[in-house]
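Pasting as-is:
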Amino acid sequence: MDLSTEHGDLARFWEEIPAAQSWQLLQDVNQQRIQATLLQLMVCSSRLEQKLESCLWTQRVFILMVTVFTVFWAVALYVHFSHGYSIWTTA
């Protein structure tokens, strides 16, 4: 398409619409667009918060398991080297 024809058609279109009506349409569209964008942002934020909570829960469980296994390992080493080591080496 010819670029000059497009600009002429667009200018003619806006000249035919009253100025007050065009501003009202633009304001309504902008407000609707802002509201829709904010709604999408809130939905995305909610989903992100749920994913983050899930990850944090998994991390807490993992840290708890590592702590418990470390305590068992430390107790086993203590028992092995304090009580059981002398019994195993003298046999």
